[in-house]
Amino acid sequence: MEQPTAHRWIKTECGRAKYAELVARPGTMARLRLAWFVLIAALRDWQLPAEA
Q: Residue 14 belongs to what H/E stretch?
């Protein structure tokens, strides 16, 4: 199974689980929340080493 592109930026397991939860939600507000989450998570995980 191929990983989403966002997994390049979201490197923690809890962040990836939250990403999967937010992707499954329908609606415009859910998409805005997802975009906000990816932005903040990418900034927080920026300096963490990449997982294989």
A: helix 13-23
